[in-house]
């Protein structure tokens, strides 16, 4: 028995990078909130003092020529912001009434925004100047706490004296700075203003950095000698590290963008797995006919007709019907003992998995529209959207409309991150970008690349418009593609993604390490002499290979290009490529390329390029699709890089704001944390309730077939196959007399409909049960069952709402009394935490926890109900392949339609058939003539394309198609349609436009079996050759 390896969640690179980002943000925030140093010239925030512009006395003397005064309310407003609101940064917007609107802009061209001046009151305030100008957006306004805005009207004295200094920028700048430092007081009063030694007046300047505009804040203050000292604000080292990490995240997103795609969409273990189902008892008999004209079997033939060229997988079955021994228009008996089922992983549940999480409930009920099965909504969802006023057009049900609406909502949900990114750009970043471009153009400079393509180009740039058009074309092309073409495209895309994901990167690193030490393995110590040239040669060979296998974006792109090359490459060039591949075999052996390229395969050209103009058009269409997929993939990668970077910056800035303003924000964060904890706990109790019950049901199911499972589980994992077992309940009155499966055809694919439960066991001995069975057992007529999911979810939601109301009450009380009695923020935080844990105490200490009790599985009621639901359980599974034991032509000459007895074999639809063994028909198989059978059969493990099978709603028998009768006189036969006699199980359609005959009279409902079933050419169909007209009587 193989050991089951339990793989826990592995930390990805994004988790490690984000953890490092959090550490850096914490260090940067703590540095900015540390105790300020009075000697700001040695501060890391303001490290470089500018030259002394002038002394206070000389400034006063020159200020008599021109100085500025503010409104009388300016000092009062400023005092209110600094003393009462404890502002750490005051943004002052100045206006100059009586002057042109752009007076300051024309006089101060090197100032980024001449009308905006900032008063910084602490080092924490100055640290905000190091950040991006849109820090309030990116921090979700957490960093904007303590940042106040003030607007003031200024008057120059003497009147309009500023116009004298329009051509002298430094003089104008000195006048504005000195006026701000004096709080716009009269210079004749010799006042120094209200600035403390750590307060500064700052403005943003534009400097020439090699032809590019460099924006930097310049902060000024009076020193002890009365001199105005200006300092440039430069980035802190921790901020530089943080920005470097963000750049690394961008690069990693580009290189690993395919890893964001859910692996459940393409990996084999999630898409579909093959399970071997061995039929108990004697071999099952299927009647199969290959027809070039399936229309002759009547309008009900569509229920049992499959198109051979559209049949997925089924390699053994297709080989059987395509063999030279198989003749068209003849019915064959096929003996079957083994069937390979194709089962999606989402339709199975392990012991530790239940679909009761909030995500599963929303996805299943809204996206997959399972809510339509609820009793109050069942009738409405299955009714027509026009109701009784339908004029006779095709009926469209409400649940179909809801599925389309859910798909549209899902597309909007997927697009929401990009919509938020565009909203942030046009709301904040676009304005800032325009200002920077305008300031740079005034000085004839260019703007540096800001680190974001959206910010550099804008979302309405031609590049992004091209991407939007590509997405629209993708949607239209995918909508008009045929189903077969979609399947081919999915097959190519899934193969590329699967090979990209399942290739071991550790094996690539091991291969490179092996080659790196090769000189020392061969030459010993002398390998040091050859190591440098060998290393250069090794880098040329290994680095491209390593990049291909280590970086998923390159891997997927190159795989798509290789498939595109296979489509376009002529046969002669393909042959040359194969010959070159053979010539380099020795080089591949030297470099042990087999260690990394083992089992590497690409799509073969002959699988897609066959003769015929139509097929060549199909190939051209596939080329267009692959090219569009490649372009779309890189477009999505570009947008994904912008989205991830944007949200990482939101996380970083918000976390920094929480740390910097912990006293104000932690109360809100604590309440949000308590809400998250209670919501997760409340709904987890529902999941745990069903998890415990599912464990009991799972254990009882395995107990019914313990011997069969143990017999298969004894094998090694390399020899053991995924296996399906039938389970029957014996302690119930509804035990079916016949549990033989039935063949159903839906969407041109065979479906294996079973009466009873199937339990699945993979080759690693992990048992699975159907998801549908879980939903049918949760509401058994037994007191220990948890009941329908929606009832428990609604009860949990009601309980959570009561907790929300209680927490809201606690928060309002703490905030109200805290402000009234001036309680410190620390004590308010403690009061909020203590009050928030009251529901926790009531739930786990004062009230006992309700859960699934000990279910008495030995109870007669439980056993009866449990076995009843097992026996009544029906479900259809996709068929991966049918493995026949033998086949022979059906001899109907001796059949008597009335000669039914209990010894008649059972056909594929579970009906008693009247045919039996015939002496004049040679049977195929082990003891029969090999010429009449598949002997030997192809290996049943041959793989085909991965198929996806839609769920079949098992209903009643659709009715029979054919009744084959013998006249008993001369062996003349006729095959007529008889609803009560379903003989043929599978009709394999191999017709073409020339061989298919459409009978218009039959489609109008004429009497079945009448002579009016002749085709329009006047010739009898091949299978209708009655010699005795009385056979129809």
UniProtKB/TrEMBL annotation:
Bias (Polar residues) occurs at: 910-921
The transmembrane segments are 238-261, 404-426, 460-481, 508-541, 547-569, 613-638, 650-676, 800-817, 829-846
What residue range is the signal peptide? 1-29
Stretches the record annotates as Disordered: 31-57, 901-955, 1009-1033
Provide the alphabetized UniProt keywords.
Answer: Membrane, Signal, Transmembrane, Transmembrane helix
Bias (Low complexity) occurs at 32-45, 929-940
Name of the protein in its database record? Uncharacterized protein
Query: Which organism does this record belong to?
Result: Elysia crispata (lettuce slug)
Organismal lineage: Eukaryota, Metazoa, Spiralia, Lophotrochozoa, Mollusca
